[in-house]
Structure formats: C-alpha cells, structure tokens
Amino acid sequence: MYLETERYLQETKQPPETAEEMNLISEQVYRRIQGLGFWIPYEEVANAYRKKCPHMILRLQESGLPQHLRPKEKPIHSDTAAKAKKKKPRRKKKQEIAPLPEQDDIFFFIAGYTSGGTPYGVTWEEMGLEPWEEIE
C-alpha cells in the first residue's frame, strides 16, 4: 500500500483525494496481492486502503517511505577498501587439557577400557610400586 501510494504521489504530485483515485490505487494493491498467490476479497483490500490512506499520505509527506520498504542501497567501496574490511576468521583457542592419569587399586595407569568395560594398562606391580605409593 505504501509503495503504490508513493508511486501515485510521484506521478501526480498530489495525494489521492477522490474515491476513484483511491480505487485505482487499491486495485494495484489487489493485483500485487494476487500476484503473490494470496486470495483476499477486493472489498477488504479497498476498505483497508481507504482507512489507512490518510495516515500513509501524511507519513509519506513527512518522512518518505518507512525504512523496511525503502530499496536497499549497496555502499560503494573501492576493491582495496572492501578487501581490507573483510573480517578475518577467528582462530579457535586450543584447549589445553591436562592429562588425568586414571588409577585404581590394580592399575597404576589405566590406558583404556575393553568393550565389556574392563580396564587395561600398567599395573602397580609392573611399575615396582605398592598401590597408591608416592613416586619419588
């Protein structure tokens, strides 16, 4: 509705005042809605347009199109400026995980577990130590 009202204002240099002019604009809006694949009765579109028209004209005359309806303009930059402004991907910090030796009463170091859940690794006896003895 805003876009069609703005187009009408630009073409005629005056707001729609008569019912015929408002009907012309509401017909354009109705065609756009149909083009999007929606079906709304024409009377609903025309009534909504007549209700909103004075507010849209006031808004368009004061500040132009609302921000979300304005055409998006791409900023013009030189190639070198555009390349310089590209963000470099941040490198993820490597997490330093201190190895935690797993131990129990049998194993000095548990290297892993079998598929059945039984631990395997280096025993206290193989290390020549008693269980939980301090290493010098």
Strand order of the largest sheet: 1-2
Number of alpha- plus pi-helical segments: 5
Radius of gyration: 37 Å
Low-confidence stretches: none
Strand count, sense and barrel status of the largest sheet are: 2 strands, antiparallel
Globular, elongated, flat, extended or rod-shaped: what is the shape?
rod-shaped
Proportion of residues in helical segments: 40-55%
Mean pLDDT, nearest integer? 78
What is the string of helix and strand elements?
Answer: HHHHEEH
Strand content: 5-15%
The helix-and-strand class reads: mainly alpha
Termini separation comes to 84 Å
Instruction: Please count the beta strands (DSSP E, at least 2 residues each).
Output: 2
Reconstruct the topology from this structure.
Blueprint: H1 2-12, H2 19-35, H3 42-63, H4 79-85, E1 107-113, E2 119-123, H5 124-127
Antiparallel strand pairs: 1-2
Helix pairs in contact: 2-3
